[in-house]
Amino acid sequence: MKQYIGLIHKDAESDFGVSFPDFPGVVTAGGDLDDARVMAEEALAFHIEGLVEDGEAIPEPSSLAEVMASATNRDGVAILVGVKTEAKKVVRVNITLPDDVLQRIDAFAEAHGYTRSGFLAKAAEKVMQQEAA
């Protein structure tokens, strides 16, 4: 299991936000610290799954010294976020969706730090869990 540094940010009127210096653009948030940590693990795992599905490289974790050397990272509190980076077999599929649905999926995925594939996989898993209950 690899561990990446997540930076927790908190403004007076906000939730606890988490960003990842090794994965620019991946952000999540939670109402309290425990929720933020859980959300950080999920967001990072799904982002990495998306990278694997898209055939992109997964960066090696930066050290705390490397992360904190950047002035832009010093206002966050560093936490370690563990993620399994085992390569799963990835299968490329071709699906057909209405254009407006695809646009909404892409906008939602981008706003929440997912790739399209990662979001669709998470959505499918959630529906299957709900239907099984």
Automatic annotation (TrEMBL):
Domain HicB-like antitoxin of toxin-antitoxin system stretches: 4-124
Taxonomic lineage from the root: Bacteria, Pseudomonadati, Pseudomonadota, Alphaproteobacteria, Hyphomicrobiales
CDD domains given in the database record: RHH_NikR_HicB-like (cd22231)
GO BP annotations, alphabetical order: regulation of DNA-templated transcription
InterPro entries found in the cross-reference section: Arc_rbn_hlx_hlx, HicB-like, Ribbon_hlx_hlx, TTHA1013/TTHA0281-like
Gene3D superfamilies attached to this UniProt entry: 3.30.160.250, Met repressor-like
Domain of life: Bacteria
Name used for this protein in its record: HicB-like antitoxin of toxin-antitoxin system domain-containing protein
